């Protein structure tokens, strides 16, 4: 079963919008990271300020990693739409449940294959 072209266009539009939102968020996080300030090397901040900056940096780094991974998922999903393979499980090749895709448009695996992968890891 293939998706109707109008449905694919809506999904594509949504993903492109998400892509822009995530890219914007990543740039915002980068500018908020206390470690991105070149002047930071020259300041003589108190140790509690240093600890707070370190903690903020670690949180921002984790969020950046998560958003970067999501951005990669979006890019891969847009490529699958272009190739005509959107909605097919990357593991077994069967159609991913449309309810799952409605909730998570970047889903790569059907529920069965996802569970099998989770058991392996």
From TrEMBL:
Domain Zinc finger DksA/TraR C4-type, first and last residues per copy: 84-118
InterPro entries: Znf_DskA_TraR
Organism annotation: Candidatus Gottesmanbacteria bacterium RBG_13_37_7
A GO MF term: zinc ion binding
Residue segments, region Disordered: 25-62
Record's protein name: Zinc finger DksA/TraR C4-type domain-containing protein
UniProt keywords, alphabetically: Metal-binding, Zinc, Zinc-finger
Pfam families referenced in this protein's UniProt entry, alphabetically: zf-dskA_traR
Zinc fingers typed dksA C4-type, residue spans: 89-113
Signal peptide: none
UniProt lineage: Bacteria, Candidatus Gottesmaniibacteriota
PANTHER family assigned to the protein according to its UniProt record, in alphabetical order: GENERAL STRESS PROTEIN 16O, RNA POLYMERASE-BINDING TRANSCRIPTION FACTOR DKSA-RELATED
């Amino acid at each position: 079963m293939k998706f109707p072209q109008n449905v694919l266009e809506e999904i594509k539009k949504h993903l492109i919008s998400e892509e822009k939102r995530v890219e914007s968020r990543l740039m915002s996080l980068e500018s908020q990271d206390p470690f991105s300030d070149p002047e930071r090397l020259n300041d003589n901040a108190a140790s509690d300020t240093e600890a707070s900056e370190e903690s903020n940096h670690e949180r921002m780094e984790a969020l950046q990693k998560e958003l970067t991974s999501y951005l990669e998922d979006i890019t891969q999903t847009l490529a699958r739409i272009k190739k005509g393979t959107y909605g097919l499980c990357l593991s077994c090749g069967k159609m991913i449940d449309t309810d799952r895709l409605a909730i998570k448009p970047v889903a790569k695996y059907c529920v069965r294959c996802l569970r099998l992968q989770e058991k392996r890891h």
